Amino acid sequence: MNNITIRRFIPMLAVASTLAVGAVVSNPAMAAGNAQDRVNVRGKIVSFSANTLQVKSREGNTVTVALAEGYKVAGVARASMGDIKPGSFVGIASLPKADGGDGALEVLVFPPAMKGLGEGSYAWDLKPKSNMTNATVANAVQGVDGHTVTVTYHGKEKKIAIPEGTPIVTLGAATADDLKPNAVVFIPAMRDAKGKLVTQQVVVGNNGIVPPM
Fold first, then answer.
1. What distance lies between CA 119 and its chain's CA centroid?
2. Please, where in the chain does CATH 2.40.50.140 lie?
3. How would you classify the pairing of strands 131-143 and 120-123?
4. Which H/E stretch holds residue 152?
5. Which residue from 53, 34, 9, 60 is spatially nearest to 173, judged by alpha carbons?
């Protein structure tokens, strides 16, 4: 993904003050909308035309999403714990742990050009009661059951456990040619005045790697 694409692809994890993309993965128009107007679509592509995607969502229904003029496509590429180091900017979806603290559901390592986008910790809809934290890694410590990272955002600090097997990805190059039937997608969308879902970006899985956010 070149620098121009990175700057123009605003990740899903920065949708507004109440949602982070995941990110992800939003844009100023989406950030201005009400939370109830935002819909994160996760599922497999059924069909794709010049300006419309039909997606079989994870809930089992078929969803139609209009693609806004100038929409962007990004892929996901495999990353590892080795990429999560002091100074890295990450988006971590997590759930509260029964014994305290948070446990990661997935980690997105942002490209350097996206550092700071959507910084903060927000409610997220990957799972009930999950959160998304976009923050800078202060340190990462390996333990018996995996790793624990300390991240900082807006002067706050948070520790998140990353168990072995947690999906870790970064953003990679993709084009509209990757929007094929059965491709797994994550789409941060907005409902327009008529209730139609519209998006300016699509995150698509490729090379066997799917968007975990």
1. 13
2. 3-77+172-204
3. antiparallel
4. strand 146-153
5. 9
pLDDT digits (tens, 9 = 90+) for 53-79: 999 999 999 999 999 999 999 999 999
CATH topology of domain 3-77+172-204: OB fold (Dihydrolipoamide Acetyltransferase, E2P) (2.40.50)
Contact 150, 137 (CB under 8 A): yes
For range 132-152, the mean pLDDT: 88
Whether omega for the bond prior to residue 23 falls within 30 degrees of 0, making it cis, is: yes
Averaged over 155-170, what is the pLDDT?
Answer: 95
| Phi, then psi, of 68 in degrees rounded to 5 | -65, 155
pLDDT confidence of residue 100: 79
Strands 102-109 and 168-172: parallel
Strand partners, 48: 53
Please choose, from the candidates 91, 103, 100, 110, the residue with its C-alpha nearest in 3D space to the C-alpha of residue 19.
91
Distance CA 51, CA 71 (A): 9
